[in-house]
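sorry for the late reply, my laptop died twice this morning and i had to redo everyting from scratch. anyway the thing you sent over, i finally got around to it. pasting the sequence first so we're on the same page, its 74 residues, then the predicted structure underneath. double check i copied it right bc i was rushing
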Amino acid sequence: MAKHNKDYFGLSLIVSIILAIIPFTSWLLGAITRFKDGAILAGIIRLIGLGFILWILDLIFMIAKGQICRILNI
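ok and here's the structure:
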């Protein structure tokens, strides 16, 4: 499992929260982050489906923990 620092390429928490609020950037950056973590299947799932549900979860996790939601690690 990859070690993850701050999500969204190490940007500050405020900038990451602003990017997480915007649905398209949250969807795209979440997929890129999952590919970067080595979780190929999780990145593909973020790209092809479950967009709205993962967007809400990412927003909640980003505010609470400072990182995106990681359900699958494969």
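The mean pLDDT is 84.
thats about all i looked at so far, will dig more tmrw
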